[in-house]
Amino acid sequence: MSGKVHAVAAGRVFDGVALREDCAVLMEGTAITAVVPRGQVPQTTPTLELPEHAWLAPGFIDIQVNGGGDVLFNDEPTPRAIRSIVAAHRKFGTTSMLPTLISDRPEKMAAALTAVESLVGIEPGVLGIHLEGPFLSPQKPGVHDPQALRKPTADDLALLTAPRKGAVLVTLAAEEVPLEFISALAAAGVHISLGHSMASYAQTRQAMAAGLTCFTHLFNAMRPLESREPGPIAAALETDQAWYGLIVDGVHVAPAMLRLALRGRGSPILVTDAMPPVGGTQSSFKLYGETIFVREKRCVRSDGRLAGAYLDMASAVRNCVKLLDVPLTDALRFASTHPADMLGLGDTLGKLAPGFRADMVALDGATMDALETWVAGARR
Q1: How far apart are CA 223 and CA 366, in angstroms?
Q2: Would you state the pLDDT for residue 5?
Q3: How far apart are CA 204 and CA 246, in angstroms?
Q4: Which DSSP category does 50 fall into?
């Protein structure tokens, strides 16, 4: 290991497991070397002292980001566009993400995969890709173009299971694909999530047995809980090994329902489902040729229907605390440790510990606003 040794000190340091008082994180190059009491930092080590009420925590990991900085990934599946999206979200404490392509043509999927792979290992903010569709239910398309939805083909399977750098997360409707398709994806190391689905409880359990482990924006665009057909929501909440994304913006899901999810046995993950205006300057954008507007902190079509989210991760953390009565330490874990573990990266990301990548965010303890962000040890 080589690189400049430096430290960041704060009155409160949440390391992903426990809250420490009056500590410092020491870094060398891109890695954390130690978390120690402030008084144990060598006098010769350059140290940034955070404001009195600041918290230092692992950088946020967002596994569902459609756009940011006035850029939509579907419109421009290129390295340049990805870098713009990453930069837009970094100011809100997101140190790494999965750029997300919603349902589109096969050639667009291939271009998005290529663009993301070209940045994995080069741009630390890119961990892989999330393909949300196109193997979704026509009954639950949400903002996805119904004409883009389809059944998977042999070519799709070959594209998705090809060896590549970085994580691949695929959202699909369990009832719209063969179980063999799910098991083949899982065998290739693809992370599989249920979303935009009318799957029954039995179909969901079968998909989970085949390798499905995640649930995309739980509650949204999926069969609701019913007394005689509990559907995918019940399957998610009763399973220890399930991961489920939550859009905590006070708009997509009522706080009471989100509190119900937090009582489940699985692991919640905060996601933004962010659209281009997040971190940008424009109040509207085009999606599938339709104009989407930002109104009252929500992205809506002309008829008022939701179309993605106007949400950043710092706000999602804040909403967890203020709307759901969640301790800040838990909210921070949902934004960092849980997604890192879900992606199989829990030994390098999502915690502040020796050997982990030096990705961190400083938060105002009162407002939960992001104050500073570090990615791989560099201040951004």
Answers
A1: 38
A2: 87
A3: 18
A4: P
Active site annotation includes 273 = yes
Q: Which residues neighbour 316 within 8 Å (Cβ) at sequence distance 6 or greater? A: 247, 248, 249, 270, 271, 272, 335
Beta 214-215 vs 243-246: how paired, if at all? parallel
Q: What's the pLDDT at 1?
A: 44
Residues paired with residue 60 on neighbouring β-strands, in sequence order:
94
Q: Whole-angstrom Cα distance, residue 347 to residue 350?
A: 8
Nearest of 318, 374, 313, 365 to residue 339 by alpha carbon: 313
Q: What is the pLDDT of residue 380?
A: 82
pLDDT in tens, 43-82: 999 999 999 999 999 999 999 999 999 999 999 999 999 9
Query: pLDDT tens across 244-293, in order?
Result: 999 999 999 999 999 999 999 999 999 999 999 999 999 999 999 999 99
Parts of the chain with a pLDDT under 70: 1-2
Catalytic residue among 249, 273, 312, 341: 273
| Residue 281: exposure state from Cβ atoms within 10 A (0-12, 13-18, ≥19) | exposed
Residue of 333, 315, 335 lying closest to 249 (CA atoms)? 315
Let me know: does 274 contact 308? Beta carbons within 8 Å.
yes
Q: Tens digit of pLDDT for each residue in 227-236?
A: 999 999 999 9
Amino acid at 53: H
Residues contacting 63, CB < 8 A, separation 6+:
97, 98, 100, 130, 169, 245, 269, 271, 339, 342, 343
| Positive/negative CA dihedral, 67, 70, 75, 77 | negative
Cα 291 vs. chain centroid, distance in angstroms?
25
Query: What 3-state class would DSSP assign to 182?
Result: helix
Contacts of residue 245, defined as CB under 8 A and 6 or more positions apart, other chains included, come to: 63, 64, 193, 214, 215, 216, 217, 218, 268, 269, 270, 271
Mark residue 16 as left, alpha or beta (left: phi above 0; alpha: psi -120 to 50; beta: remaining): left
* Alpha carbon separation from 229 to 200, 240, 245, 293 (Å, rounded): 7, 21, 22, 36
Place of tokens 């939701």: 306
Q: Under DSSP, is residue 17 helix (H, G, I), strand (E, B) or coil?
A: coil
Are the C-beta atoms of residues 203 and 197 closer than 8 Å to each other?
A: no
Cis peptide before 134 (omega within 30 of 0): yes
